[in-house]
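re the bet — no i am not wrong, look at it urself. input seq straight from the record:
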Amino acid sequence: MARRAISASVDTSNFHDYKRQWLIKWVLEVNKRFVNDLLKPWVDLNKLLLVSYAVQPGLSEITRAAGSIAVALRHVNEQLDDKTSNKELDALCPLISVMRDAGDFYKHGRLDKTSRNCPIVVKSAFEIDTVGGFRFLRNIVYLQHATYGDMDFMQVSRDVIKFWVDYKKIDVVWDVVVGVNNGSFLPKAFLTFDQRYCANMHEFTLCFFKDVGGGVLEPSDTDFNFELKILPV
């Protein structure tokens, strides 16, 4: 018995529309996650650092927030589905390797390759004037990299985020500056301990700077008057 061939046609006109819609949806979702996981946390941390809280150098809400940003930046190429090798990325933006080390150290602790170790710590920074007054500048988050030394986390993370915004052409505006207070000078250096931002503190670190002209601040050793206010739980 002869078999009759069966032919069928498939309408693909809607497939390309679906694929395009899916791609647009994926891009929008990536942008949302980038904003949620990196941009907003960075802005929130930038504001928090302007409040004169006393915190344990390596364990507080500040280091937790910075560590979360570091881990997010460590894996942002996966989130963005970027296949560029680490070697190529490091050539394009050397600070990426610093943030990679910071993210790995925060997540895993001491690393097998000790030259990559990069703890995150906080120091409370004050400017001193010529008559012994003190102005709180900000809490500075430092990356204490075993190879590259101390680096300002907010500056490094801002620049790495900026690289990814430009490199992947992410549709956001990222024109931010690291915040610094410019209030009045006071007779004492003053910090507040608030358990909401640091559950357990047995030490904190102060650092002092002086204006050497043109708004340039350099580290300075000085005698100082200091007061710590402890808020009730």
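see?? The CA atoms of residues 101 and 116 lie 6 Å apart. told u. also Confidence is low (pLDDT under 50) at residues 1-13. so pay up
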